[in-house]
């Protein structure tokens, strides 16, 4: 009995599915839409402020805007608020650049006890590393496709 | 002392006694429904230490000290220390109890370590290889999260089946003869694996192990569920408990009413479901320890429970096995307690 046959497994997993509360998909999606949108809205406001009062050109205001959002998310992670916000907001807090900031800050905080080099340095990209790796790799291939198409 | 059936050790009714217990509870646990059950309730899960790991070690050490104080013994009177935790290489147990400088045996069955420890400790007492044995476990939400999942401050949305690792530590002093609580039986569990893979569904992964060990225990001892005032599992959570009760009814081992009344789960008992971010309930090596030694043993003292079966449950995954897509094997060991006099 303990090492289950495929039939027993299937039967058991059907029972588990019947008795397990599902993820509230509709609610999660709605919250992600609203929160993700509001974070982008905030970014837009910051960008407009940089253009209007900071003397940035619209094409250049993106970088300081992202820096401000990253800083805000890092601060809210540090004071222990961001993870609770993320439990409520789901993908709405994970997808924007604030989510990326949270992955790095949380990993750095977590591994502070192992020292600055092996701890913070060695683990800061632990969660966000895959995003960077596959972001760069996919950007390379997209650029390659574009280059080939333009020079055909 | 005899073996019953396939895997149950009958220790005798007056052979192995629990003479004292101790519980150290974390902040969220101390705010839960069992808040008045613990010897020491913390208001800082860091207990003044510079890392979560040292915090957990400190809790374990405090639990060991309190258990010795309550048993009116000095640490030097302890012949053997048995215990475990969830950290790799059992650092909370070994590093935390290092100052005791007594013979030590570390055990690991994930969150079922309490019952494995109690079985080994009872064996040592019953055979006379030790007169006084200290046994305990610890867990900490911040050390477990980082080892098995993500950094604590990482914003990941948990599903309703997720569980919260209990922060705390507990210990018991076992000795030969009679005491307020007797350890009468230990049933050693087998691995159960029904193909659950998601680390967010520990309750579903472990329910078959609890079911199997409970069935084996009843078959070996010739007892039925009615012979126990209460059967508790370690940390199935509300979702896993619902699955276990369903399995018991489906296999004709209990009526729906009996399953509801006589079978419960420490993970479902330790938190109120409205507490923040506890989801399906508690888990962790300290979950069954805090509920059993804190709450249930007091219920036995008050005479509300006479005979108790604790089936601690453990999910035997590592971060590597989970990332490699392996299924989650689980194990449950059962310990039967009786009120002393």
Automatic annotation (TrEMBL), chain B:
NCBIfam families: PRK08304.1, spore_V_AD. This is Stage V sporulation protein AD. It comes from Alicyclobacillus sendaiensis PA2. It comes from the Bacteria. Pfam families: SpoVAD.
């Amino acid at each position: 009995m303990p090492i289950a046959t495929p039939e027993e497994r299937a039967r058991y997993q059907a029972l588990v599915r019947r008795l397990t509360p599902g993820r509230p998909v509709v609610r999660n999606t709605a919250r992600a839409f609203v929160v993700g949108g509001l974070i982008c809205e905030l970014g837009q406001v910051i960008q407009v402020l940089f253009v209007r009062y900071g003397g940035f050109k619209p094409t250049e205001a993106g970088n300081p805007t992202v820096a401000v959002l990253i800083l805000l998310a890092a601060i809210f992670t540090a004071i222990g608020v961001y993870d609770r916000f993320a439990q409520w907001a789901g993908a709405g807090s994970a997808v924007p650049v604030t989510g990326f900031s949270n992955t790095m800050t949380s990993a750095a905080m977590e591994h502070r006890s192992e020292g600055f080099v092996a701890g913070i340095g060695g683990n800061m990209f632990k969660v966000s590393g895959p995003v960077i790796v596959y972001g760069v790799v996919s950007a390379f291939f997209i650029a390659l496709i574009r280059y080939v198409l333009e020079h055909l | 002392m005899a073996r019953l059936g396939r895997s149950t050790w009958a220790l005798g009714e007056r052979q192995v006694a629990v003479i004292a217990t101790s519980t150290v509870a974390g902040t969220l646990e101390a705010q839960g429904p069992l808040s008045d059950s613990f010897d020491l309730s913390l208001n800082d899960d860091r207990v003044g230490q510079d890392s979560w790991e040292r915090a957990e070690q400190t809790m374990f050490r405090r639990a060991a000290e309190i258990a010795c104080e309550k048993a009116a013994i000095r640490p030097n009177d302890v012949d053997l220390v048995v215990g475990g935790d969830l950290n790799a290489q059992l650092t909370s147990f070994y590093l935390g109890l290092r100052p005791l400088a007594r013979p030590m045996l570390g055990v690991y069955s994930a969150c079922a370590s309490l019952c494995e420890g109690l079985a080994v400790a009872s064996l040592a007492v019953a055979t006379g290889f030790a007169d006084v044995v200290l046994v305990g476990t610890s867990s900490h939400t911040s050390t477990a999260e980082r080892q098995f999942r993500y950094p604590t401050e990482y914003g990941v949305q948990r599903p309703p089946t997720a569980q919260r690792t209990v922060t705390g530590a507990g210990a018991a002093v076992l000795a030969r003869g009679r005491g307020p609580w007797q350890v009468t039986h230990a049933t050693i569990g087998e691995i159960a694996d029904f193909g659950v893979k998601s680390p967010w569904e520990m309750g579903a992964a472990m329910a078959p192990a609890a079911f199997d060990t409970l069935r084996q225990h009843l078959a070996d001892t010739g007892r039925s569920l009615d012979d126990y005032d209460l059967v508790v599992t370690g940390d199935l959570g509300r979702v896993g408990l619902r699955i276990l009760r369903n399995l018991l009814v489906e296999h004709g081992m209990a009526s729906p009413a009996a399953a509801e009344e006589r079978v419960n789960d420490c993970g479902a008992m330790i938190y109120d479901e409205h507490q923040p971010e506890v989801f399906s309930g508690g888990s962790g090596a300290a979950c069954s320890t805090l509920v059993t030694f804190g709450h249930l043993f007091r219920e036995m003292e008050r005479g509300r429970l006479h005979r108790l079966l604790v089936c601690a449950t453990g999910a035997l995954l590592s971060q590597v096995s989970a990332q490699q897509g392996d299924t989650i094997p689980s194990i449950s060991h059962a310990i039967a307690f009786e009120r002393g006099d």
